[in-house]
Amino acid sequence: MNWEKHIINSTKSIKESMICLDKLGSDAIIFVHDEQKKLLGSITDGDIRRGLLNGAILKDPVIKICNSQPEYVVYGEEYIMKLKEQREKNLKIVPIVTSNNEIVDIVNFRISKSRLPVDVVLMAGGKGSRLLPLTENTPKPLLKLNGKPVLEINIDRLISFGIKNIFISVNYLGEQIKEYLGDGKSKGINIKYINEIKPLGTIGSLNLIDDFENDHLLIMNSDLLTSIDFEDFFIDYINNNRQMSIVGIPYQVKIPYGILESKNKKLSAFKEKPTYTFYANGGIYLLNKNNVKWIPKNSFFNATDLVEKMIEMNLDVRTFQLLDYWMDIGNHSDYKKAQTDIKKMKFE
What we know:
Layout: E1 7-9, H1 14-24, E2 30-33, E3 39-43, H2 45-53, E4 73-74, H3 79-88, E5 93-97, E6 103-108, E7 118-124, E8 144-145, E9 148-149, H4 150-160, E10 165-170, H5 174-181, E11 190-195, E12 216-221, E13 224-226, H6 230-239, E14 244-254, E15 258-263, E16 266-272, E17 275-288, H7 303-312, E18 317-321, E19 326-328, H8 332-344
Parallel strand pairs: 1-2, 4-5, 7-10, 7-12, 10-11, 14-18
Antiparallel strand pairs: 2-3, 5-6, 8-9, 12-17, 13-19, 14-17, 15-16
């Protein structure tokens, strides 16, 4: 979204603001700013109508008729929660400002749900051996579901949460991925590629990146199909001051026998055919970028290795329990099921 089409200088005329609003169509709201881009107010068709009824003329500056108390969100650690509150109040378009009231972004909730301040790293370098012969000439992330590659499905969902910077780690048939997605400009985002000369595991390639823009990183396997709410995941991570958060997929184990629970051989409970819930690693992580330093350079290193290292160091690593849809497309039966599921559920 070109958010600057929603701003107008306070010295512009009411007639010029009407031209701007007309071009915006159903998104007709503009925000008035001064020379330093500081937010002064907002203008809708209704503000213009009321202004003209009160004696304003088309040559008057917009500052004369603007709403001087517009809704806005101040950028900072908690601004995502504030943005969510604005969305839940059914506001359509909201500016984001700095602590000095300077406009830095405008969110159109018709286009995106949020503005998550994270850089994303998608792991797309695997061979997909269990999906042969489908992956003989096509990288697994480009296998299609309902006519669209699973990698693109994930990228489009990330875009819907306002994410703009995506790194893709490639190896096997990586040139096909680069050719298909390019630099991301066609989708209004920035895509950069990490070229693994040799396999570096599920997270080893992070140490090849030195230009993260945000303090928080979302790392994700590119061959997952999931309806996870990335905003809820991020809010949970921030609210609990975590160093890393891992998506946990509930996995139930039903025991067909009566279970004796004891302590020091003394029976403490008897449970008849109980069901226990465990949480499997969902392959989606939120990580403070300062923790990338624990990943050895140019070495094979899995995300699980980093988790174990951080636990050993007594850093705060926790689980985000996912109740939304999740599927790891690891083999032919998973792929077949995902092809059916995506037609029944909304993933974009």
